[in-house]
Amino acid sequence: MEKLALLLPLILLSQAHAETLAQFEKKLIKNYDKKDFYEVNQKIETAIVNKIKQDPTSFSYSFPVFQDHYNLRIHFSPDKSLKFYTFDVGSGGTMGEYASYAQSKKADKTTLVSMDTGFILDVKQTEFEKQPVYLVENYYKGSSCIGAYAIHAFKPTKTGNIQAIKVFQTKKAQFDHIQVDFDCKNHEGSNDVPDYIRSDKSLKNIDFMLLDKDYKPQGKYLRYAKNNKMYQYVGVVK
Question: Signal peptide location in the record (predicted)?
Fold first, then answer.
């Protein structure tokens, strides 16, 4: 009974924070609901980011209303130690603009950092030298049919932030990300859009689509195989 009595204030405090975040969502929706999204989306992003920074319970809150109304996308790392946010901050034209952030939590304190990764599609996790490495799959939308898919690699820091880490090794250099540009005209009208980046479930191999000079897929991939320290380029595969 004593333990229950001690836990009740904590439970009530947590619920109060959750209600505060829910009320914040409703308030923001009320302020901007009748306005054109692409005229106010950057103001919405700023308001949400400031709230996330101020309220540590935001790490465990799903922001359901914002995800439905404001194109907010949320991903967690597989180990649940990082939470990723992507906001649509574009002007509504053919070119896409996105702002992404990573949030970490230690004890009752959270940290939020911005990321130059475009629209985050997925977050995968592997390990090198007993250290977690997060592989952030993302998408860039250019004008017209031009765009790109990419994978960025990050590792956690002692302060709770993340930093880019060079885990992709070619014959001459190391990179913290690899990008595949594309032109959707090469498969316009087709339902059979290729995977520009693919990987197996164990993340032992990551493949990047081979393109010609006109960005046309060649039906082959550049393969990077995992060893003890990095992903090493090993050649072309089908």
Answer: 1-18
